[in-house]
Amino acid sequence: MTSRLGPARELALSVLFALAAVAVAPRAHADPPDAPSEGQIVPPRLLSSVAAPYPADAEGDAVVTLAVSVGVSGDVEDVRVLEGFEPFASVAVESVRGARFVPAARDGRPIAATVRFRVDFTKPPPAPEPEPEPEPEPEPEPPAGAVPTGASQAPAPRPPPTDVVVRGGRAAVGAGVAESLARAEVRQLPGAFGDPFRAIEAMPGLTPVLTGLPYFYVRGAPPGNVGYFFEGVRVPYLFHFGLGPAVVHPALIAKTDLHRGGYPAALGRYAGGIVDSQAMPPGDRLHGEGQLRLIDAGALVEAPFANGKGAALAAARYSYTAALFTLLSSDTTLDYRDYQARVSYALSDRDTVSVLGFGAYDFAAQRQTVDPNQRPIFVDPGASRESRDVTRVLFASEFHRADVRWDRTLPRGGHLRAAATLGFDRTRVESHRAATDTMTGARVELTQPLAPTVLLRTGADLVVDRYTADSLPAFSDDDDVVVRQRNIFVERVDFATGARVDAVVTAIPNTEIVPGVRFDVYGSGPARALAVDPRLTTRFFVTDRLRLIHAYGLASQAPSTPITLPGITIARLRGGLQRAVQTSAGVEVDLPSDFTATGAVFHNAFYDLNDALGTAQVELIDLERSEALLAKSRGSAYGLELGVRRKLSRRVAGLASYTLSRSMRTIDGQRILSAYDRPHVLTAALSVDLGRSWRAGTRLATYSGIPMRPGVPAFAEQRVGVPPERTPAFVRVDLRIEKRWRIGETGWISGVLEALNATLSREVTGYACQTALALPGIDSAAPRCFERVIGPVTVPSLGVEGGF
Predict the structure, then answer these.
(1) In sequence order, what E strands does 306-350 have?
(2) What do you get for the CA distance between the two ends of the chain, in Å?
């Protein structure tokens, strides 16, 4: 329900709950590690053996060499294949990804490091019966064992590489409450088309606006309150228009984290969830990937230079749907493309400079025949004056980013980054008008261990956005439509600057506490606003398999539109900052057979929220009613999230997530259900290795309908049809099947058949209700309501993928 407490009191109660949780947390004692000699670097040490199962239907023996990045917490942050081929490489990566290490150390202090790690595969001999597994005692190395450099185990038959690269970067420790998806998992998820960004819809806590579209309510927060970051750089959206792919090539994305709330202090300026994605680190060998599908083609290639000190990467995707639709004589035009480029160079063992550039373009339009007396939204320049065919632009936008950064590794495992960002966003709106945003930014980030049990993370940044827009022509001097739209389409300079700090404290055995705070100043034209957002996350390691997690925080955001569009936002901080108090408590359990289960309860309270969608005042992407976009509301969301996953290194893998929630809004003193309140959201996916390099999968996605409100008669004699309380539930099934072939030592090629909404399900988005007059002495039929249906929204895909 909607909280009557203010944000400060709400957060104060949350902090008290957290302190109480610390007081009752279980205690354990751990022996301190032996201190190495002064200046010595001790590589990461594996805590337990890694069992890498021999892939089904594989042939012969194989060796896979990995670059394993281990954070100061001992968690594996990233795994890259240096040498090896499929299907062994994928199994090795997934087996090592969940391993736990004693972190590397210098002068007795934990540091982050990257170590070469070898996994040996030996084809097991046929046996009539499987022998029982021995008790967990000192045992001989398994056939597919793995030995990292510096580990205290028996050496492998071949000598492993022995170099350890000490580095900095964002550590997994203190990451807050986040769901993560790695590249290997995403590739096997049906309906995701191999895109990490699209795969986040399978995580608990997300409520879709419409099937297939990349717009979600995250724990009750509208899509405009969800932030997207790639490599620390803000981007307006993650997908191409409609059901298009991600705006970044999948091979460049190492990991995607969904922060539903209680995120680290480094992430902010959004009152909802945050999707944070990290790129693959620069490679030390020539490699590439390509994809050719019915609707688009894409490729990525990276090569080292200067004897491995530098690396250059280029990637792009191009859609030829516009030409395809023309051949089919379709009235629809859809075009998209994107690019990425990166160059990095190591100036020394501690200093690296790099430049990252990326961007995307989208255009969607529909040719229509209209009344010649009506003013068209956009007239095709090639059409004659007598032609009644016009082109209506549905969506036209682009964005570009260039990020220059300098990274320095500091003593004791610290890391310093200084970066500058340039950006350009543009969205076309009605009547040939365009809204643009030219962005400049600078940031500095510092991660530094202060003690073996304290990791400091701090930073500061400044972002300046210059908004310009084409003027809307006025029909009269006092045109109220022009006046209202100037609240959004207005030339001005906005800025946001701030600083943040948090600390990962592990002084209490089996307990991790991350207190933090953000200070942000917002400006838009002459308006100013200050936000102080404290955060607190606690993690209790009850046993080796059981963890309890609590997260509390205050999140602030400048006024926003319901859907994020490049170059468009609300000017002059109209109505003040949006604020959210985010609280959650959860549990993580490692189950047998590589299963992991999660559960969480959450409650979010919203203040001064811009949610014209949730209050049913505008339709999706409706910028004409700018006065509705400025309306403020309060609200709350609470619920239960459940999830279970099984590692893809197993022959049968999958995941399931379920969200039970309720989202409310209060506007003009009236408390209502959010227009996108969906009590039940369920996703279940299964992926099976069929043998002989065939893999098939399916995904079921279903969710409740949205609530309906009856229409209000315009006058006493009018009767209005009454719709059902909710639209019908939606159910769809996605399919994927892949056949892969190995080419040489490191090459591969596969054919993929995939379909989103293979069941051709249609979704009901609302009702159109009839009206009638109630006249004395006349018995008329009751007015009826008819479903408004979209779809079936389906995307079949047949393509070829390959890499080396």
Answers:
(1) 310-319, 332-346
(2) 54
Q: Are β-strands 351-369 and 763-769 bridged in parallel, bridged antiparallel, or unpaired?
A: unpaired
Q: Which of 678, 610, 791 is nearest to 206 (CA)?
A: 678
What's the whole-model pTM score? 0.78
Q: Give CA separation, 486 vs 491, 572, 609, in Å.
A: 9, 11, 20
CA distances from 362 to 246, 316, 403 (A): 12, 14, 22
Q: Cα dist. 466→398, 423, 491, 575 in Å?
A: 16, 10, 8, 21
CB hemisphere CA count around 429 (13 angstroms)? 20
Question: Could you give the C-alpha distances from 628 to 47, 223, 485, 491, 710, in angstroms and in order?
Answer: 57, 16, 11, 21, 20
Asked if 771 and 720 count as a contact pair (C-beta separation under 8 A), the reply is: yes
CB-based contact 422:439 (threshold 8 Å): yes
Give the distance from CA 116 to its chain's centroid: 29
Residue positions counted in the chain: 804
Write the pLDDT tens digit of every residue in 478-516.
Answer: 556 566 666 566 789 999 999 999 999 999 999 999 999
- Phi and psi angles of residue 220, each rounded to the nearest 5 degrees, phi first: 90, -15
Q: Is the omega angle on the peptide bond into residue 449 within 30 degrees of 0, that is, cis?
A: no
Give one word for 350, left, alpha or beta, with left for phi > 0 and alpha for psi -120 to 50: alpha
Tokens matching residue 249:
């090539």
Tokens of residue 263, six digits: 């995120």
Q: How many CB atoms are closer than 10 A to CB 263?
A: 27
Tell me if 238 sits within 8 A of 171, measured CB to CB: no
Q: Three-class SS of residue 444?
A: strand
The 3-class SS string of 14-79 reads HHHHHHHHHHHCCCCCCCCCCCCCCCCEECCEECCCCCCCCCCCCCCCEEEEEEEEECCCCEEEEE
User: Could you tell me which residues come within 8 angstroms of residue 268 by beta carbon, excluding any fewer than 6 positions away?
Assistant: 498, 500, 518, 520, 533, 555, 556
Asked, as a colleague might, if the bond just before 713 is cis with ω within 30 of 0, I would say no
Q: Chain centroid to CA 304: how far?
A: 29
Give the tens place of pLDDT for each residue, 329-360: 456 677 899 999 999 999 998 899 999 999 99
> What's the DSSP call for residue 229?
E
- Position 472 scores a pLDDT of 59
Q: Phi/psi at 413 (nearest 5 deg)?
A: 85, 15
* Contact yes or no for 95/117 (Cβ under 8 A): no
In DSSP terms, which residues pair with 496 in a beta bridge?
A: 463, 522
CA-to-CA distance for 756 and 28, rounded, in angstroms?
Answer: 48
**Structure-block tokens of residue 542:** 């009850």
Selection from 543, 614, 512 nearest residue 271 by Cα: 614
Strands annotated E in 506-617: 511-524, 527-541, 546-557, 578-591, 595-609
Pick out the chain residues at pLDDT < 50: 1-4, 11-39, 129-130, 133, 135-175, 329, 374-387, 476, 621, 623
From residue 13, how far is each of 150, 613, 663 by CA, in Å? 47, 30, 21
Q: Helices in 584-736 by DSSP H: which ranges?
A: 626-629
* Among 317, 318, 287, CA closest to 302: 287
